[in-house]
Design goal:
With about 90 residues, the chain is mainly alpha-helical. It contains 5 helices and no strands. It has one domain (about 1-90).
Length: about 90
């Protein structure tokens, strides 16, 4: 349980940092906050950045949705969610 609480605390801090971050504030490796949320499987953060902040470009949204779908397959083996994310990304192309 302490590990879960720690993970939730990190996620909460990450969400708070998104208020001031822009999608083009990338790390040295090119990882933006949106891509970082996608690769770690934080669907709610990805949706928040895309829907509420509205700072992502169309291309960044497509990349994030595709990566999030791949993460759902890789980590959760959830093909249904991945398919829906990929379908949404394809509709934006």
């Amino acid at each position: 349980m302490p590990v879960r609480l720690s993970a939730l605390a990190v996620a909460a801090r990450y969400r708070r940092s998104l208020h001031t971050a822009t999608c083009d504030s990338a790390s040295l490796s090119g990882m933006t906050p949106l891509l970082a949320a996608s690769v770690t499987g934080h669907t709610e953060i990805v949706e928040y950045v895309i829907d509420k902040l509205g700072t992502a470009t169309r291309r960044e949204v497509i990349d994030a949705l595709e990566l999030l779908g791949a993460t759902h397959v890789d980590k959760g083996r959830n093909m249904h969610v991945a398919y829906e994310l990929w379908r949404k990304a394809m509709a934006m192309r």
